[in-house]
Specification:
By secondary structure, the chain is an alpha+beta fold. It has 13 helices and 17 strands. A hairpin with a 2-residue loop joins strand 16 and strand 17. The longest helix has 27 residues. About 0% of the residues have low confidence. The protein binds flavin-adenine dinucleotide (FAD). Catalyzes the folate-dependent formation of 5-methyl-uridine at position 54 (M-5-U54) in all tRNAs.
Length: about 450
C-alpha cells in the first residue's frame, strides 16, 4: 500500500466510480462532495451518484448498441455504478431504467463502507497543488472551482453551455443529392476544398422547412439555464422566428457553392455539414443548435434533401454544461497537460450522459491507481466503447468545434467487409461489439492478474 492518497473532487457518476475503481485496485482515496451544504439547480439530495433528470441508463443491448456495449465493458471491469443500477433495475423493455433513490443510497453506502475510501463533505474551490487528483465535478461545477479551472486552462477552453448541432452518420447521407465542397472552394488541399457536405434546397423546400421549424415542438429551458447563452448561439428555430429570410442569410446561405448534380440551377438555400471526427464517419449540421424536442428534430431534419434517410449519432440541444476543451487540454491518460498531477473525468471532459460519465470515472480511477501503485496501464484499445470515447475526447474530436458526445459506433474504427447502410447494420454492429468485447477482455486481463 502506498502513502499517496488520490483526491477525487465531485461524488457524482464519475467521481463515485473513480473512487470505487481506485480503492478496489488497492489505492487510498479521499472523495470530496459539496452537497448537501452547497447545492446545484438540478440535484435534490445529498447522496452520491444522484441521477439529476431521467432515470434511464439507455439501451442495455450489448450486441447492437454502443451504450449497451459500454454497460457490458463496465460490468466486466467491476463497475459499482453498473452493479447498483442492476440491483435497482426497473422494468423498461430493452432499456436499463433505475430506481433512482435506492440506487444513489446504495452507491453512497458501498463507498462509505470501503476501507480505502474516506468521504469528505465540502466544496473545493481551487485546483489541488499536489496529486494525484481527479476532478469530476460535472456539468454543474461550482463557480469558484470553474473560475480556478478557467484561470489554468484559459477562458476559451472552458464552456458553460453546450450548443449541440445534430450529428449525422456520414454513410446515411444521400450523396446523389448532396455534394462535397467548401464555400468558394477555400483551402490549400483538395481535402480542405471538399471539407463540407452540402444539401441544396429549392425555394419551395426552404419555405416548407421554415414552416416546420416554427411549428415544431420545443423543449423548455430548466430554471437558471438561460443566462448568457443567447449571445453566441441562437437556436435555429429562434432564428427562423425572427424572420423567414434569417437562415438564408445565416447558416443556410447558398453563396460560393455550385451543385455538381445540377450546375446551372443555383440552390435557394444550402444546409452544410462539417466533418466531426478524424475518422470521417460523423458530420455535424453547421449552425443547427436547437431546442426542438427529439422527435420533432428527426422529422424536421429529414426534410433536408440528402438527409431523407439520415441516421443521427446524436440530436441537437442547448444545455447548461461546464466542460473543458479536452482535445487540447488532456493527454491520452486523461491528465491535464499543464498540470499532469490532475486528471479530469466525467461530463466535464466533454462526454455526455450518466453512463459515459461513469465510464470516464472508471478509467480515470484505474489510471490514477496504477500510477500511485507504481505500474502503468497500456492505452485502452480504440476498438472498445471505453477506448473509442476516451480517444475521441483526448484527440479524435475536432478541437475547434468540440461539443459533448455520447458513445456511438461512429467513434469506432470501421469494421471491414460488411455492407454499408441500413441493410448491413445488424451484422456490422455485431462485428463492432464482438471485436470490442475481445479487446476489452484482453486489456483487463493483466490488471486482474496484478490484483490477484
Ligand atoms: C439539468 C440536467 C439534466 C440532465 N439530464 C440527464 C439525463 O436525463 N440523462 C443523462 O444521462 N444525463 C443527464 N444529464 C447529464 C448528467 O449530469 C451527466 O450525465 C452525469 O450526471 C454527469 O456525471 P458527472 O459525475 O460528470 O457529474 P455529476 O453527476 O453532476 O457529479 C458531479 C458532482 O460534483 C459535485 N461538485 C460540483 N462542484 C464541486 C466542488 N467545487 N467541490 C465539491 N463537489 C463539487 C456536485 O455536487 C456533483 O455531485 C443532465 C445534466 C443536467 C445539468
Amino acid at each position: 500500500m502506498t502513502d499517496r492518497v488520490i483526491q477525487i473532487i465531485g461524488g457524482g457518476m464519475a467521481g463515485s466510480e473513480a473512487a470505487w475503481q481506485a480503492a478496489e485496485a488497492g489505492a487510498r482515496v479521499v472523495l470530496h462532495e459539496m452537497r448537501p451544504a452547497v447545492g446545484t439547480f438540478a440535484h435534490r439530495t445529498g447522496h452520491l451518484a444522484e441521477m439529476v433528470c431521467s432515470n434511464s441508463f439507455r439501451s442495455d443491448d450489448d450486441e447492437q448498441n454502443a451504450v449497451g456495449l459500454l454497460h457490458w465493458e463496465m460490468r466486466a471491469a467491476g463497475s459499482l455504478i453498473m452493479a447498483m443500477a442492476d440491483a435497482h433495475r426497473l422494468p423498461a423493455g430493452g432499456a436499463l431504467a433505475v430506481d433512482r433513490d435506492p440506487f444513489a443510497e446504495s452507491v453512497t453506502a458501498r463507498l462509505r463502507a470501503h476501507p480505502n475510501i474516506e468521504i469528505r463533505a465540502g466544496e473545493i474551490t481551487g485546483l489541488p497543488d499536489t496529486g494525484p487528483a481527479i476532478i469530476a465535478t460535472g456539468p454543474l461545477t461550482s463557480g469558484a472551482l470553474a473560475q480556478a479551472i478557467a484561470a489554468e486552462t484559459g477562458q476559451d477552453a472552458l464552456a458553460f453551455f453546450d450548443a449541440i448541432a445534430p450529428i449525422v452518420y456520414a454513410e446515411s447521407i444521400d450523396m446523389s443529392v448532396a455534394w462535397e465542397q467548401s464555400r468558394y472552394d477555400k483551402g490549400e488541399t483538395l481535402e480542405e476544398q471538399r471539407a463540407y457536405i452540402n444539401c441544396p434546397m429549392t425555394r419551395d423546400e426552404y419555405e416548407t422547412f421554415i414552416d416546420a421549424l416554427i411549428a415544431a415542438d420545443k423543449a423548455e429551458f430548466h430554471e437558471g439555464e438561460t443566462a448568457q447563452y443567447f449571445d453566441g448561439c441562437l437556436p435555429i428555430e429562434v432564428m427562423a422566428e425572427r424572420g423567414r429570410e434569417t437562415l438564408r442569410h445565416g447558416p443556410m446561405k447558398p453563396v460560393g457553392l455550385t451543385n455538381p448534380h445540377n450546375p446551372t440551377v443555383k440552390p435557394w438555400a444550402v444546409v452544410q455539414l462539417r466533418r466531426d471526427n478524424a475518422l470521417g464517419t460523423l458530420y455535424n449540421i453547421v449552425g443547427f443548435q436547437t431546442k426542438m424536442k427529439y422527435g420533432a428534430q428527426t422529422a424536421v431534419f429529414k426534410m433536408i434533401p440528402g438527409l431523407q434517410d439520415a441516421s443521427f449519432a446524436r440530436l441537437g440541444g442547448i444545455h447548461r454544461n461546464t466542460f473543458i476543451n479536452s482535445p487540447t487540454l488532456l493527454d491520452g491518460q486523461m491528465r491535464l497537460r499543464s498540470k499532469p498531477h490532475i486528471r479530469f473525468a466525467g461530463q466535464i471532459t466533454g462526454v455526455e450522459g450518466y453512463v459515459e460519465s461513469a465510464a470516464m470515472g472508471l478509467l480515470a480511477g484505474r489510471l490514477a491507481a496504477a500510477e500511485v501503485l507504481g505500474h502503468s496501464l497500456p492505452p485502452v484499445p480504440q476498438e472498445t466503447a471505453m477506448g473509442a470515447l476516451v480517444h475521441h475526447i483526448t484527440g479524435g474530436a475536432e478541437a475547434k468545434t468540440f461539443q459533448p458526445m455520447n458513445v456511438n459506433f461512429g467513434l469506432f474504427p470501421p469494421v471491414e467487409g460488411f455492407r454499408a447502410g441500413r441493410r448491413g447494420r445488424v451484422d456490422r454492429y455485431k462485428a463492432y461489439t464482438d471485436r470490442a468485447k475481445a479487446a476489452w477482455t484482453a486489456w483487463l486481463a493483466p490488471q486482474r492478474a496484478d490484483a490477484a
